[in-house]
């Protein structure tokens, strides 16, 4: 069975705890295997653009079954996937902050985080992505 | 000050309680005055399309400062706003399920609900929209 | 020579005077023959969606060289242009509130108005469209 | 209370005065906190593309709550936000000419300017953004 709303909420909570820990206002989006939204939060003070970017990161991480930050190096000028961000019907995000959610070796969804520097976004995304594993 | 994440969460919870009460699986979206998402939930079993429709209903209710269900009669064939749903850069929803969130006479955001019949969606949206008033 | 910024401003002012007269909060957009914006105003209290709709009405009125309200009857179910609103790369508006701006028999631009009932929108659009003629 | 039309007009006028001073034909767009247009002007002779670019700059500056010119260095090849301009549902502008409008420490809107070289655009945007402060 796929990612439940209860799962998504546990992931969301873990991500928000991490965001508070590093004192950064974040948007956090959780999608299931279909890449549609299951849970979302935008903290007070997170810039407006972070909402769409977080959702697009989650969409990308499940679309590729990989962390969004791993895509970036492949899309630099001269690299094999140069301009890959325009290859689909919606934005593919190629910088960090999106992480697949893996349960039992299967990618059941993804989390996308935006609002801070990309390494901050990514640390919050990882905290969320690891929440299910930790709670089992 | 505008709609906070804490406010949005209280609205979301009230809507989900109502959805459970009427035993209908729903997507619920809360936007602030900017019409960007603040909080979102999709319950297990809600159809995939409900995610986008809920978000678009919330966007519409704040774009118009009125319930989405009030727009529909004006957009029937032969009526003054026929085809209004296509008039903006994203879908304007003209059936029920979106409600403005009003605090102190000001529209501070909106809630959009999708997943059931439109009257079910609207009853959940109203339960959410009234949550802040009830808690003051 | 085409519609100047000074012309557009005179049109805008005449439209806003009319909006105040009928006590309706409006968005007013003026485009030139290329259909790009030359002047725009959104009055305090006009609903958010009115900004995009006004611009789309002005775009449509010059795209068709006719009042947007004249398009509606042709696009009703069973009529020759049914679903015409989706025929271009951006929304074609088929209800009233967009008027071509005609100088010396030539369509030099258009005005689009949104925020009220469509007949209110159209009366403001007409007031704007007639401003240049009146001032010559 | 947010940015009024009167505020936006004062900002617009200050920007156009600066554009005339540096003898450069400009498009100038003012958005409020919702990022919808409040006021806009395109001067005679400003290239057509400047209309959309000015609007997108204003949208970006409020979406990020920062000057658009500050985004560019982060989005160069090899930098953390490379390809950030495609991360949202509409273009994020990463070069100068968009400035947040700040009143009492709060970002109440933004101005976007296009038509000249980016430093010209930015000087006009700054002249506009400072107009409210100057008049208080």
Number of separate strands of chain A:
4
- The strands making up the biggest β-sheet of chain A line up spatially as 2-1-4-3
Q: How much β-strand is present in the residues of chain A?
A: 15-25%
* Main sheet: strands, sense, barrel of chain A: 4 strands, antiparallel
Low-pLDDT residue spans of chain A: none
Give the overall shape of chain A: globular
Q: What radius of gyration of chain A results from the CA coordinates?
A: 14 Å
- Largest interface, C-beta within 8 A: A-D, 21 and 18 residues
**Chain oligomer state:** homotetramer
Would you mind describing this structure in some detail?
With 136 residues, chain A is α+β, with helices and mostly antiparallel strands. Helices cover 37% and strands 20% of the residues of chain A. Chain A contains four helices and four strands; from the N terminus they run αββαββαα. Chain A has a four-stranded antiparallel β-sheet with strand order 2-1-4-3. In chain A, helix 1 crosses helix 3. Chains in contact: A-B, A-D, B-C, B-D, C-D. The interface between B and C is medium-sized, with 18 and 21 residues. Strand 2 of chain A pairs antiparallel with strand 2 of chain B, so a sheet runs across the interface.
Summed up:
The structure is a homotetramer of 136-residue chains. Chain A is built from 4 helices and 4 strands. The first copy, chain A, has helices at residues 5-21, 49-64, 118-129, 131-135, and strands spanning 27-32, 37-42, 98-103, 106-114.
């Amino acid at each position: 069975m796929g990612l439940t709303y209860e799962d998504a909420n546990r992931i969301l909570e873990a991500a928000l705890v991490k965001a508070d820990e590093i004192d950064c206002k974040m948007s956090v989006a959780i999608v299931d295997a279909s890449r549609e939204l299951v849970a979302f939060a935008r903290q007070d003070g997170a810039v407006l653009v972070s909402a769409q970017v977080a959702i697009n990161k989650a969409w990308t991480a499940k679309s590729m079954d990989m962390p969004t930050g791993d895509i970036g190096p492949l899309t630099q000028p001269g690299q094999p996937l140069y301009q890959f961000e325009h290859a689909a019907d919606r934005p593919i995000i190629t910088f960090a902050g999106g992480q697949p959610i893996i349960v039992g070796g299967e990618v059941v969804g993804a989390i996308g985080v935006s609002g801070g520097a990309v390494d901050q976004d990514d640390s919050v995304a990882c905290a969320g992505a690891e929440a299910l594993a930790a709670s089992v």
